[in-house]
Amino acid sequence: MKTNRYMYKTRVLILLLLVSNIAISQVDNLWHSDKDKISIPFDFSNNLIILDVQINAVNLKVILDTGTEKNILFSFPSNDSIELFNPIKTKISGVGSGETIDALISSNNKLKIREFEDNDFTVLILNENNINFISKLGKEVNGIIGYSFFRDKLIEIDYDRKKIIIHKNRNYLKKRKFRKFSKLKIDLINNKPYVEINSTFNDKNSPLKLLLDTGLSDGLWVFKNDSLKIPEQFLQDYLGFGLAGEIHGKRARIEKLQFSNFEFKEVLVAYPDSISFNNINLIFGRNGSIGGELLKRFHLFIDYKEELLYLKKNQSYTNLFNYNMSGIEVQHSGIEPIKEEIRLNSASSEVNAIEYVKNNSEYRYNYRFILKPTFVVSNVRINSPAANVGLLPEDKIISINNRKAYNYTIQKINDLFQSEDGKKIKMEVEREGKIIEVIFYLKKLI
Predict the structure, then answer these.
(1) What is the pTM of this model?
(2) What stretches of 37-115 adopt beta strand conformation (E)?
(3) Full domain range(s) for residue 60
């Protein structure tokens, strides 16, 4: 057996295993816990579930995504390398306005999440420049885990406690815990889960067949057709990004949505432009997707084996369906050193002067530089409050409501822009070396 190795710009080490006349048996999942459940904490950002995992002993962050069949890696640790086995060239299509993407598919890798291991983990490897979650979420994300995580396990998603729990014992849950949960049938088609729900569009009842998609930030996407027309009151908006590029479309509200035994009113719905799905093979009868903005209102159990979804209200159930009323999208644009002054008691012997120390009769001052995030405007919605005061893409954000931009996160900025109709927003931005101050008020248009 001969082994060849290649080093890519992404610092991914691809290990080619050339095997002939050797039978390779599939390795089962390994459960390194004396309990019948494994609890996994997650980070929740922009309605996405982000897990800490190890792939071939390298620490990575991935989005847990029921909406994809594949496991995908699109970025890698900058100061590390990762071995991936048996790569084969392929092409994939992704949601967005771009073309198909070149990729490698690698099998027989080892995935480890807490006390759980999958020793037959298959993953697609993309060029890291295809997608940049750091700029969109303000934090590094290396990939996506899809169907293989759910296929033979009972998965609990507790959004309130921000925990994923993998369960072994279905019978106990059926007898005890599931009594408090509503049950909804899942159709598992091409290794993706679909649910059927009822909705009211323009005073007309419309059944919807939707992809259950934890990798979608919005609550509801609907594909336009003759029977599902866009309401008269809508706004043109940037909806997000997929593996193949940016996604644009329209936003509106529908009167009512029936999800299992639960009813929501005035639900935000996004209508992605058809060009975003040009390269995607959609199953017959699919009307759209149901995503994190709606799913986060429930305590969930997802059971692919028995094709069932269990739901119970959680603390977010009654939250309003809000959207970004400012009209601007913000993205992370890097880091820069910020000078901070630390006042030390004169009796203190601790000095860590990165720049200099000055003395007076009572205090010594220590100056240090701390790396802080920077943010820019990435998109501006036409006729929005931000557009009407002249904000433009590429404007660097200096401050928001008299608070330096580096003291925010993207999540906190988004929360502010979704907060309340009529809220005053004061911003300082830098454009071509000049500081510009603007004031606008959030406006609820739909």
Answers:
(1) 0.83
(2) 37-41, 43-45, 48-55, 58-64, 72-73, 82-85, 88-92, 101-113
(3) 3-20+28-148
